[in-house]
Design goal:
About 45% of the residues lie in helices and about 15% in strands. By secondary structure, the chain is an alpha/beta fold. Helix 2 runs parallel beside helix 4 (about 55-70), helix 7 (about 155-165) packs across helix 8 and helix 11 runs antiparallel to helix 12 (about 280-300). The protein is globular, with a radius of gyration of 19 Å. It starts with a helix and ends in a 6-residue tail after the last helix. The structure holds 1,3-dihydroxyacetonephosphate, glyceraldehyde-3-phosphate, sodium ion and zinc ion. This is Class II fructose-bisphosphate aldolase.
């Protein structure tokens, strides 16, 4: 059942977090919905503009709608991740989304407010909620790269003014994560004291953690053992950091890199171990099963299993 992103956040605040999973292709959608049905866990399925270009937006949304019929006991929302005005207006016009993210965090505060506010007005008319972002994450996200020198943490002193001025419904913050597989090259980890300060200024307001992938060392090792060249300083968000972030208001945790790594592992091992085979459905099925198992673990970690 499709429900609003807003309702998911109202129920989970400071109790558990909702995984927001980027999808690009069919096998992920199967794995995600199958896991959610089994665990009775709420989730957010999200598409980036890149995913909409790759798969075609209509194809993606149709696959999601189809999955909801195949797995009828699921409770989920549909979110547009990292959208610009053009993508969001398109999504508002064509429908299908319960929330959108306006990615204007690279602009200065006033410009970010102005762009966010405009989108909020249009989205709210259609009952679509808006995630805004304050602070800039480093890393690679689809086709956009931000080098660490141009990233910065969210300034807690700005969050109240930003939320008040924009009327956004949730806030993505930069507290040490980055996009991609190399999050903590300096070993710095999540800046929980910044998160604490943000929550103190916005009590009850849903916060969003981008760059939420764990980057499993085992998966990286298996990729490299099967011919991959992922650098060994790959590192993601640790489980205890996630557990500490949830009571501090993190309601939504975005995950994309972990899926890419898992897909790479499954396919590299397939090509290494079954050189005589050439059926895409063989690694496709392995991926679905592995992805389902991976998502089930996230539901447990985020505390949302049994909450749908
Ligand atoms: P990861 O790179 O950690 O998967 O982050 C994904 C993300 O924030 C998508 O918006
Ligand atoms: O933001 C959306 C991207 O799909 C995230 O990709 O996992 O490379 O950061 P990433
Ligand atoms: Na951003
Ligand atoms: Zn992101």
């Amino acid at each position: 059942m499709l429900i609003t992103t807003k309702e998911l956040f109202q129920k989970c605040y400071a109790r558990y977090a909702i995984p927001a999973v980027n999808v690009f292709f069919m096998e992920e959608i199967h794995g995600l919905f199958a896991a959610a049905q089994q665990a009775n866990a709420p989730f957010i399925v999200q598409t980036t503009p890149f995913a909409r270009d790759y798969a075609n937006a209509d194809m993606l949304l149709s696959m999601i709608a189809s999955a909801a019929r195949i797995y009828p006991d699921t409770v989920y929302a549909i979110h547009m991740d990292h959208g610009y005005e053009e993508h969001i207006l398109d999504a508002i016009e064509k429908g299908g989304y319960t929330s959108v993210m306006i990615d204007a965090s690279h602009d200065a505060f006033d410009k970010n407010v102005e762009r966010t506010k405009l989108v909020v007005e249009k989205a709210h008319e259609k009952n679509i909620s808006v995630e805004a972002e304050l602070g800039v994450l480093a890393g690679v996200e689809d086709d956009l790269t931000v080098d660490p020198a141009h990233s910065f943490y969210t300034n807690p002193q700005e969050v109240e003014d930003f939320v008040k001025a924009t009327d956004c419904d949730s806030l993505a913050i930069a507290v040490g994560t980055s996009h991609g597989a190399y999050k903590f090259s300096g070993g710095q980890g999540l800046q929980l004291h910044i998160l604490e300060e943000i929550q103190a200024r916005l009590p009850g307001f849903p916060l969003v953690l981008h760059g939420g992938s764990n980057v499993s060392p085992e998966v990286v090792e298996r990729i490299n053992a099967a011919g991959g060249k992922i650098k060994t300083d790959a590192k993601g968000v640790q489980e205890d950091e996630i557990r500490k972030a949830i009571p501090l208001g993190i309601c939504k945790i975005n995950i994309a890199t972990d899926m890419r790594l898992l897909w790479t592992m499954v396919n590299r091992e397939f090509f290494r171990d079954k050189p005589q085979e050439f059926a895409p459905t063989t690694p496709g099925k392995t991926f679905m099963d592995e992805y389902k198992k991976f998502i089930l673990k996230k539901f447990d970690l985020f505390g949302c299993a049994g909450m749908a």
